[in-house]
Amino acid sequence: MTPLKIGWAGLGTMGMPMARNLLKKGFSVSIYNRTRDKEKELIKLGASSAESLQHLSQVSNVVVTMITDDEAVEQVYNSGDGLLSDPSPGTLMIDMSTVSTKISKKLAKDCNGKGVRFLEAKVSGSGKLVEEGQLIIMAGGAIEDYQKALPIFETLGKTSFLMGEVGIASAAKLCLNYFLALTFQGLAETVLFAQQEHVDKQAILNLINESPLGSGVTRQKSQTILSNDFSPAFALKHITKDLRLVQKEGMRFPLFSPLLASYQSASQMGFAEDDAISIIRFLDKTVSDLKKS
Description:
By secondary structure, the protein is an alpha/beta fold. The chain has helices at about 15-25, 40-45, 55-60, 70-80, 100-115, 130, 145-155, 170-195, 200-210, 215-225, 235-250, 255-270, 280-290; strands at about 5-10, 30, 50, 60-65, 90-95, 115-125, 135-140, 155-165. Strand 5 (about 90-95), helix 5 and strand 6 (about 115-125) form a beta-alpha-beta unit. The radius of gyration is 20 Å and the shape is elongated.
């Protein structure tokens, strides 16, 4: 098998530790980030810096993108000097960004038109799970492309699944993030209601986490709530963006509209850059303001 020469575009909260894990595992990695200063740490670990996205697609046989949203992904792939401006034939493009099913299908079509392969690979997990290579990876595309990408997935995650054709993995990721938003909102409302009823905050969180209701998410975010440190592992603005994507996919169930409204209001009221569980601070403020009025 030809050794993997990995290109990586996007060094944000997720992309940086993921690329770092590949380098630590001994992979050959070339990087490109719009903010070039972010490349310095990885260069020290052995990464090469590509001159442009176009250059990245010419020196790699696999290119991974981890970008913010649909618009940014479209720009990275299809701008004048983007990944698809003049790629090496047969290169495998892997998009790991959380985007709409529509843009994933479009990228697959665009890649096919340029003589390169495309695989969507969405991830579940943030913070410590990213750092430790314990992500869950959902892929969509051809089985031969999935098999080529497996050494990468095995480094970045604890398990991976080939979900089906392109678009299915993007849909599955949006399903998970909808459930995640519901979990954050439910945990926040429960804690605030408990405090209203004079139940100690740590006591109610202990009860939740020791009961069948507890999960990795509730245990992790309990620590965030108790420490009052809302530094973002997964920023509220990102889960709000994902809920808007869920809306575009046709979500019509009764809990969705008030959930989206809650996160959108929280984003507008200054909580966008904080961790998504800071929805608890927004709800607390909202209730306090109502009591004063």
